[in-house]
């Protein structure tokens, strides 16, 4: 197979790649006028036919989402761009925003044209200061060049982009949590239905898309459906509900690897290939013990499952929740899974919004149980309790309002079922990987 | 008619009824436990207690169940909806949710005010597990003893249903309460310096399904299982909120609103909630008096009542317009009827007047925004007319006289010396007559005063008849929109007092014990405007008397 040429990342290594001049020199915005003169429904159809699936985590078909908007809605429709990239280990949006903001802005313009929206809200994670400055400058450049604002490129299409910085909460990455936060409220995810496409931001129809998804929209329109479909994994013929995983994907590899990186590859690359070929292998000559396939809420792959294809369907086949954000975090064989799982649980417990009972209490309880295991005061039965708690937090999606509870339960289920021996040895050996100082910090 | 199936039982719901699964299940007597859902507040579906299995019955009769459990509060019940709330899956989910709720709950039921009427206790008993599997320390959150003049918050008992937060946002509009912090460390709190002191604040205590929000007035006074509840009506204003009066050992401890869509809905104001204190005032008139030239000559009930009756008879015989009565808007319809019909039987020209109707300010509507402007739709109104039964007494008076004489006109006639005997019914705990007005009765030979608190007119009284407050009486009051509701006797008055209806019953020489329903059927038969009083619904949530609303009413 020929070496894959990056598309989304084609420009990021160029000097001054964030400027409008350099983007236009590479052909950016060149066909914007042409696309804006197309009927909005045609743009939607192109995106729909390309098979593009949302890159934010759930993998929902983007074009299909756009068609959920009410037809002939008289009032405003909004696009909210989810740039609250906060899944641990995920940093692909950051590259896109810092290095090639105009690719994103063009995607926003095209998406807004398609959904007939004249206002887009870019919800940016607070911690991304550089992204904020780069995007802010890029948006100003676009207004000055007539690419944003009134009557874009003389096509009669108007669009304003509002750059909004969050205040640092994982839950703001959930689409309705993001909408609540944009409205100035506490980011408590909303009950669905109504879905945002019917009643979203300011109670108006709203589409929420990820940064990478919108960058893909730009590339699909410039390069065509055939190009997009030539990359990735076609649908599984045995599974009629699998729409396939087409297109390039930005994989973020971090953790115990020699060279952590964010690399663009066709969907369907295996975890082993990512680690060995792109991240320089596991560090210090060690072996991988577990790999997070797409952000910690997706669970763990064991060392025997490293040949799992990282497409939208792959991780699910080996008991993970899904591809998630394709943030691959590698855990080496010298690391205790108890500590890894504790770290996951502590994060989820800290970030639970506290609205639904199972998530609010369950995440905290699992953290407390793991704290106890780490201080050497536990019994093997505690593992069954952990599994039961994880089970009642996310027996089936829908136990809570949003997916955080499932995401918090999944690593527990995966870690204990796939590494049960290690947990039992840890407990039986009365080992404690926690120092007295850590113990103090854990309690307070 | 749309049909919903609940645990295999079919139930029909009204075509225009918008019910959720909890309400639909309640129709067949199936309880779906819920904490955060309240019929008068918005749906947040966050407690996850009401998870049920829901499916749809297809036209061909097959049932397609949703694979996941859904919150009953958020799921509308439509034609063909199938609800299963007794499957193992549902039971397991409830058990898990209750275990989560109890993880950080202090389990201090022995010292908790809510114990006995606590949803956490009840649901844990019915649906929970018997023991805790928590081996770790509980989260400890500091109590907030002052979040309002009447309210205290036991933060650690809170289960974060956010009913109180939604109440202050959606009904009172004052938004004092909110959630602070995140995850299992979150708490209900106020903004510093903005306590929950709105006129509806006390409702958050009732809304709290556990013992987190407590009323300072009731705190540690009684165990709730000692209390006996009586359905009654608040007499604080003409809204006429349905309430329950909770008493123990002839002492009232609290008033709680009783849900009644025909009356006020689910809530009541603090003025009414804490406005019963005069019942146990040490100022209460406690013995009947008969006076001659200012000297008490008798304290015997039978003698005094007989004397009052004789005086009225004698005066009526001396001149047809020489007897008069003031019917207070605090009287029940039955009391007004007995008194008015008695005077008219003595003399067809006896003068009947409406007692003073106290009106304070203007009707107070809620919710209000931060600037104090009322936001539509109005969800609660505290009325300016501070008496419970102006409409009912007016309906009785209109039956006997063409024009209802106002109190001021009667005062004028009294000061001319026209009357030989007047019967004055008081009943307003905030006072109903001034020193100056009382002077009008100085020229009247026989002044019979029936009241429970001292007033300036007692100076001129020849007969003082200590009566009862609204918790000591039974009868009908008619609210601002013509809803007749029954107030019921929940406590016995202090020694020496008698309920008004008994005083009047004996004054008018009716035989036997007081039977208000006999009087009611008498009224219903004779007064068309009050014909609805014979409706048995009166004893439940009241009867709307459309014609009882006299023209030009406030």
What do you see in this structure?
- The complex is a heterodimer of chains A (444) and B (554).
- By secondary structure, chain A is an alpha/beta fold.
- Chain A folds into three domains: 20-230, Rossmann fold (3-Layer(aba) Sandwich), CATH 3.40.50.11540; 245-332, Ubiquitin-like (UB roll); 337-443, NADH-ubiquinone oxidoreductase 51kDa subunit, iron-sulphur binding domain (de novo design (two linked rop proteins)), CATH 1.20.1440.230.
- Chain A contains 18 helices and twelve strands.
- In chain A, a hairpin with a 4-residue loop joins strand 3 and strand 4.
- In chain A, helix 3 (40-50) packs across helix 6 and helix 14 packs parallel to helix 16.
- The radius of gyration of chain A is 22 Å and the shape is globular.
- Chain B contains 13 helices and 25 strands.
- Chain B has helices spanning 21-27, 88-103, 119-127, 163-170, 203-207, 270-273, 301-318, 333-346, 390-400, 407-415, 435-438, 500-507, 516-526, and strands at residues 3-6, 9-12, 51-57, 63-65, 70-71, 81-84, 151-153, 177-180, 187-190, 213-215, 228-233, 242-248, 251-257, 289-292, 295-298, 323-327, 351-354, 364-366, 380-382, 421-425, 446-451, 463-466, 475-478, 483-487, 543-544.
- In chain B, the strands form seven sheets. A seven-stranded mixed β-sheet of chain B has the order 15-14-22-21-20-16-17, with helices on both faces. In chain B, strands 1, 2, 3, 4, 5 and 6 form a six-stranded mixed β-sheet that branches.
- Chain B starts with a strand and ends in a 10-residue tail after the last strand.
- The chains are: A alpha/beta (444), B alpha+beta (554).
- At the A-B interface, helix 13 and helix 14 of A face strand 5 and helix 2 of B.
């Amino acid at each position: 197979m020929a070496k894959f040429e990056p598309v989304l990342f084609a420009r990021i290594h160029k000097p001054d790649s964030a400027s409008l001049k350099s983007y236009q020199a590479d052909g950016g915005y060149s066909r914007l006028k042409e696309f804006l003169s197309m009927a909005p429904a045609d743009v939607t159809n192109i995106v729909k036919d390309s098979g593009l699936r949302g890159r934010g985590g759930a993998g929902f078909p983007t074009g299909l989402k756009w068609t959920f908007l009410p037809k002939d809605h008289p009032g405003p429709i909004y696009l909210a761009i989810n740039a609250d990239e906060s899944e641990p280990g995920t940093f692909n949006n950051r590259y896109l925003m810092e290095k090639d903001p105009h690719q994103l802005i063009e995607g926003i313009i095209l998406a807004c044209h398609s959904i007939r929206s004249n206002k887009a809200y870019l919800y940016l994670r607070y911690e991304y200061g550089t992204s904020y400055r780069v995007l802010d400058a890029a948006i100003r450049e676009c207004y000055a060049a007539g690419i944003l604002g009134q009557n874009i490129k003389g096509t009669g299409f108007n669009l304003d982009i509002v750059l909004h910085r969050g205040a640092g909460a994982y839950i703001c990455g959930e689409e309705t949590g993001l909408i609540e936060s944009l409205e100035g409220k506490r980011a408590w995810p909303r009950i669905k239905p109504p879905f945002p496409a019917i009643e979203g931001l300011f109670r108006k129809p709203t589409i929420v898309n990820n940064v990478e998804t919108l960058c893909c929209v730009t590339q699909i329109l410039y390069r065509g459906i055939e190009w997009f479909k030539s990359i990735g994994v076609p649908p599984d013929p045995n599974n009629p509900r699998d729409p396939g995983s087409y297109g390039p994907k930005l994989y973020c590899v971090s953790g115990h690897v020699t060279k952590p990186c964010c690399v663009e590859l066709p969907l369907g690359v295996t975890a082993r290939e990512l680690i060995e070929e792109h991240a320089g292998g596991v560090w210090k000559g060690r072996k991988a013990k577990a790999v997070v396939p797409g952000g910690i809420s997706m669970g763990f792959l064991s060392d025997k499952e490293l040949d799992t294809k990282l497409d939208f369907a792959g991780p699910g086949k080996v008991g993970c929740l899904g591809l998630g954000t394709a943030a691959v975090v590698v855990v080496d064989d010298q690391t205790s899974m108890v500590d890894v799982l504790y770290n996951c649980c502590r994060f989820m417990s800290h970030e639970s919004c506290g609205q639904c009972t199972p998530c609010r209490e369950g995440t905290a309880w699992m953290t407390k149980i793991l704290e106890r295991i780490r201080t050497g005061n536990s019994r093997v039965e505690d593992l069954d309790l952990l599994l039961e708690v994880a089970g009642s937090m996310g027996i089936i999606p829908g136990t809570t309002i949003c997916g955080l509870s499932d995401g918090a339960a999944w690593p527990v289920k995966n870690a204990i079922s796939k590494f049960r021996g290690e947990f039992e040895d840890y407990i039986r050996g009365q080992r404690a990987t926690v120092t007295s100082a850590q113990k103090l910090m854990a309690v307070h | 008619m749309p049909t919903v199936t609940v645990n295999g039982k079919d139930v029909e719901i009204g075509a225009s009824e918008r019910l959720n699964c909890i309400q639909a299940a309640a129709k067949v007597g199936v309880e779906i436990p819920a904490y955060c859902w309240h019929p008068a507040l918005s749906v947040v579906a966050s407690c996850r207690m009401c998870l049920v299995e829901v499916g749809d019955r297809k036209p061909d009769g097959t049932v397609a169940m949703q694979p996941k459990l859904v919150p009953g509060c958020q799921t509308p019940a439509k034609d063909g909806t199938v609800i299963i709330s007794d499957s193992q899956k549902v039971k397991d989910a409830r058990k898990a949710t209750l275990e989560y709720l109890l993880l950080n709950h202090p389990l201090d039921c022995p010292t908790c005010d809510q114990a006995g009427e606590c949803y956490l206790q009840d649901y844990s008993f019915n649906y929970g597990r018997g023991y805790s599997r928590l081996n770790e320390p509980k989260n400890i959150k500091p109590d907030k003893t002052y979040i309002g003049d009447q309210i205290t918050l036991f933060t650690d008992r809170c289960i974060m249903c956010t009913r109180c937060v939604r109440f202050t946002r959606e009904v009172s509009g004052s938004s004092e309460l909110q959630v602070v912090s995140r995850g299992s460390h979150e708490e209900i709190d106020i903004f510093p310096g903005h306590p929950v002191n709105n006129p509806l604040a006390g409702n958050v205590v009732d809304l709290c399904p556990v013992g987190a929000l407590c009323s300072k007035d009731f705190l540690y006074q009684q165990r709730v299982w000692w209390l006996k509840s009586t359905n009654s009506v608040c007499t604080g204003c003409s809204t006429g909120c349905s309430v329950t009066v909770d008493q123990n050992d002839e002492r009232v401890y609290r008033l709680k609103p009783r849900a009644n869509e025909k009356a006020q809905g689910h809530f009541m104001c603090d003025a009414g909630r804490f406005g019963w204190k005069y019942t146990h005032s040490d100022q209460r008139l406690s013995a009947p008096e008969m006076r001659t030239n200012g000297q008490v000559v008798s304290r015997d009930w039978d003698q005094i009542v007989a004397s009052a009756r004789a005086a009225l008879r004698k005066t009526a015989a001396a001149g047809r317009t020489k007897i008069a009565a003031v019917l207070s808007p605090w009287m029940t319809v039955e009391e007004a009827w007995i008194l008015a019909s008695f005077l008219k039987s003595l003399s067809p020209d006896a003068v009947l007047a409406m007692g003073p109707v106290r009106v304070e300010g203007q009707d107070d509507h809620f919710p209000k925004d931060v600037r104090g402007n009322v936001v539509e739709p109005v969800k609660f109104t505290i009325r300016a007319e501070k008496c419970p039964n102006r409409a009912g007494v007016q309906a009785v008076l209109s039956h006997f006289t063409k024009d209802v004489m106002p109190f001021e006109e009667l005062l004028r006639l009294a000061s001319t010396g026209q009357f030989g005997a007047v019967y004055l019914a008081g009943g307003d705990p905030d006072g109903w007559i001034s020193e100056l007005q009382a002077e009008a009765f100085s020229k009247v030979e026989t002044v019979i005063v029936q009241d429970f608190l001292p007033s300036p007119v007692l100076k001129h009284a020849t007969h003082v008849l200590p009566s009862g407050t609204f918790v000591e009486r039974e009868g009908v009051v008619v609210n601002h929109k013509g809803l007749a509701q029954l107030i019921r006797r929940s406590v016995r008055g202090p020694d020496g007092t008698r309920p008004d209806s008994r005083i009047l019953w004996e004054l008018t020489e009716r035989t036997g014990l007081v039977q208000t329903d006999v009087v009611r059927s008498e009224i219903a038969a004779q007064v068309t405007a009050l014909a609805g009083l014979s409706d048995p619904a009166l004893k439940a949530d009241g009867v709307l008397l459309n014609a009882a609303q006299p023209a030009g009413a406030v």
